[in-house]
Design a protein that fits this description.
Shape: rod-shaped
Bound molecules: zinc ion
Strand content: under 5%
Number of helices: 3
Order of helices and strands: HHH
Largest sheet: none
Number of domains: 1
Helix content: over 70%
Number of strands: 0
């Protein structure tokens, strides 16, 4: 197998979905292959950034309804009930 093949395993490896024998082969290759190590690190960083982006989006979505409700109530003049 070459580096291209291992790149296909990368996502499964990061997600802990790789069968044990393939995970061992992947780790053996990656321990001695700087380009693949770099790729793995870049991939993990990308995942982290994506997680942070989603977390920020969820925060925005959580805040939006309350503001929207207040705006609607204010527009109706019913915010002091
Ligand atoms: Zn490699």
């Amino acid at each position: 197998m070459n580096c291209r093949d291992y790149v296909d395993f990368l996502m499964a490896y990061v997600n802990d979905e790789l069968p044990p024998d393939q995970a061992v082969a992947f780790r053996q290759h990656i321990s001695d292959c700087p380009p693949c190590i770099h790729y793995l690190e870049t991939y993990r960083e990308t995942l982290e950034l994506e997680k942070q982006a989603y977390a920020e989006q969820e925060t925005l979505f959580e805040e939006a309804p309350e503001k929207l409700v207040k705006a609607i109530l204010a527009a109706r003049g019913e915010d002091k009930i």
